[in-house]
Amino acid sequence: MTIGNFWPHDAVVASSIVTDDEWCDTFDRRKTGNSRKIGQRRMQKLVRLAHISDVHLANVAGFSPRHLNLKRGLGFINWQRKRRFIHLQSTVDLLLEDLRQQEFDHLAVSGDLANLGLPSELEAAATWLKQLGNPSDVSVIPGNHDIYCPLWSDQGTERWQDYMSNLPDVARQAGPSSASGFPYVRRLGDVALIGVNSAVPMPPGIASGQVGMEQLERLQMILFELADEGCFRLVMIHHPPLPGQASKRRALKDAADLQSLIADAGAELIIHGHNHRSMLAHVDGASGAIPVVGVPSFSATYGPKSGELAAYNIYEISEIPSGYSIALEQRGLKRDAEGVMCLRREKISGVMHKQN
Questions:
Q1: Dihedral angle over CA of 314, 91, 338, 344, nearest 10
Q2: CB–CB of 346/280 below 8 Å?
Q3: Cα dihedral sign for 234, 239, 241, 245?
Q4: pLDDT for res 63
Q5: In this predicted structure, what is the pLDDT of residue 3?
Q6: What does the pLDDT look like over 110-122, one tens digit per residue?
Q7: Which stretches of the chain score pLDDT less than 50?
Q8: Rounded-to-integer distance, Cα 38 and Cα 354, Å
Q9: Which of 72, 163, 202, 230 is 20 to 30 A away from residue 317, measured at CA?
Q10: What pTM was estimated for this model as a whole?
């Protein structure tokens, strides 16, 4: 397993921009360590998936005493003093304009649309999601800022239910979904997007997450079931899914359990947010090394010496004779440059053998 292989956030990678034929020309046979030339056979593209995260829509305008508690009070002070100068609506609008000019088949949103998990924020986020696209074209999971504190009788992130449900809406062999509706499965042709919820209310100052035993058990069954169907399995979660990818107060509490599950059941790609950084790791799975990719915040506008600027990813998933190939394009802001640009293009996975 490789952890913490961060991309330099100011580097515009030109040398890694390659053609489809070059991507298909040579790949690394990870399980055997051998290389094999497959000539110029073109890949069959399965899907182009856009990925955004940690939008932190700037609509915190205060809240009623009903939802006031210590954590929200401290969070509101932090928003007023710092975060509102980082997460800018103008940046969201700029990147969204660029995103709409790109070619992709589906949009994945890996959480943190809100800041304090207030009903007014969650309602505004629901409206924003409708502007993004139809529920059949957009998949969402909540982040720790969306499920910030208990809301008691309020419906909370269930406002986004149409974007967080099975597609098509059919019962899977793994049985009925949990009470929370997670994990859900969305079929995009031969690609299955599996939405996992790691967001649970935590004490003040703690931004960690937890999948929980019920979800883990269902996730394992779903991964095995989809493998039997011959699907490319793409897991989306908010928190970085591997041990050591975040500090203790920000980490996924059951990351070791999730890693063990993935090693047993396998997957082809895992995507996440939360750290507001470009991240790339590989973890051993049942069918080979699995890329684990983190995306920066979609709204971050830091000063000249701190933080990674706003960006989003597009993954092109293709089928090749011996498995799958995944190419990544990242677009976003760059210091000392105007507008949104391509920051990097690279192949993040050469081949993973299909499970029969």
A1: -20
A2: no
A3: positive
A4: 66
A5: 38
A6: 999 999 999 999 9
A7: 1-41, 175-176, 351-353, 355-356
A8: 17
A9: 163
A10: 0.86
Mark 289-318 as b/e (b = at least 16 C-beta within 10 Å).
Answer: bbbbbbbbbbbbbbeeeebbbbbbbbbbbb
How far apart are alpha carbons 272 and 290 in whole angstroms? 13
Phi, psi (degrees; rounded to nearest 5) at 134: -70, 155
- Domains contained in the chain, CATH given: 2-349 (3.60.21.10)
**Token pair in block for residue 147:** 């499920």
Write down the pLDDT at residue 9.
Answer: 39
What is the reported pLDDT for 59? 82
Can you give the pLDDT at residue 34? Answer: 33
The DSSP annotation for 101-152 comes to TS--SEEEE-S---SS--HHHHHHHHHHHHHH--TTTEEE---TTTS-S--T
Question: What residues have CB less than 8 Å from 324, skipping those under 6 apart?
Answer: 46, 232, 268, 317, 318, 349, 351, 352, 354
* Block residue for tokens 């508690």: 69
**What pLDDT sits at residue 335?**
87
Q: Which two tokens stand for residue 350?
A: 């050469």
What is the Cα–Cα distance from 148 to 144, expressed in whole angstroms?
Answer: 6
